[in-house]
Amino acid sequence: MDPTSLSNALSSPEVQAFASGFPVMVMHLGLTVGLLVVGAAVYAVLSPWKEIGLIREGNSAAAVAFAGILLGLAVPLAVSLSVSTSLRDIAIWGVATVILQLFAFRVIDTLLTGLPQRIRDGEVSAAVLLVGAKLSTALILAAALTG
Fold first, then answer.
1. Are 145 and 79 in contact (CB under 8 A)?
2. What are the residue ranges spanned by the domains of the chain?
3. pLDDT score recorded for residue 41
4. Cys-Cys crosslink for 94: which of 35, 46, 75, 78, Cβ 3.0 to 4.6 Å?
């Protein structure tokens, strides 16, 4: 490729759009993943059955339940990311989403009494029910974000 062709290729609108958009996308992605990690960490600390410790002990039900937490946080965060236009927008809606979802998780944990012990005992069926309830709230919250 001769220097003129290379110069033309690098100055094309597509390459320029990528060059200006890629760093923004990486910042938006980083902030959203950070919110996911923080949300999951807060949940892990507040969890009535301490899934991380149970997972380390090989408890499959706890692993399924915690996977539901991650998905339940990720779904509305992904929608928040898709409808936001700036880092500030992502931060505001992302934090609101994490707080609302953690509140919904707490309500679900309270309503579905008996599940903590069943998950501690390794009952995967209890964890699957919990995942279903938490993903349901995540989908509703995600839809509310698109208003």
1. yes
2. 26-146
3. 95
4. 35
Beta-carbon contacts of 81 under 8 Å, excluding residues fewer than 6 positions away, are 28, 29, 32, 90, 94
- pLDDT tens, position by position, 25-83: 999 999 999 999 999 999 999 887 788 999 999 999 999 999 999 999 999 999 999 99
Question: Is the full-model pTM beyond 0.70?
Answer: yes
Max Cα separation, the chain?
71
Token code pair at residue 88: 């500030």
At 49, which amino acid appears?
W
Place of tokens 């700036």: 86
